Amino acid sequence: QVQLVESGGGLVQAGGSLRLSCAASGRTFFYTMGWFRQAPGKERESVATISWGGGGTRYADSVKGRFTISRDNARNMAYLQMNSLKPDDTAVYYCAAARLKGGTQKTDYDYWGQGIQVTVSS
Fold first, then answer.
1. CB atoms < 10 A from the CB of 120, how many?
2. CA-CA distances (angstroms) from residue 50 to 3, 12, 44, 75?
3. How far is the C-alpha of 40 from the C-alpha of 33, rounded, in Å?
């Protein structure tokens, strides 16, 4: 069974960068990996997804051009590089893995990390 643990969050000024990492304890080679986020009072939303081979990526319009999702299957890792951060990016960020096809819906995903706080100050 896959277990996911996020790291790399924290507090950063607007315009700064953070790199989130997701370590998987089980095999995720054929899994879709995704990053979601949830701000206070808002629903959890998809930020980015990546196919098992790494060739297919999708991004929310709000983060296109600023965030980059990647994965290293040999290390069972997924990453989210976040640049040009804005206060609206403040949220708890979750790593997720889908055994089959994973899209932008949280119900597509079978495994979730505990979440990590990202706070962007103005």
1. 19
2. 18, 25, 18, 16
3. 24
Model confidence pLDDT, tens digit, residues 23-38: 999 777 789 999 999 9
d(CA 9, CA 45): 17
**Which amino acid belongs to residue 109?**
Y
All residues at 6 or more sequence positions from 116 whose CB lies less than 8 Å from its CB, including other chains: 6, 7, 8, 9, 20, 92, 93, 94
Give 30-88 pLDDT, tens digit per residue: 899 999 999 999 999 999 999 988 889 999 999 999 999 999 999 999 999 999 999 99
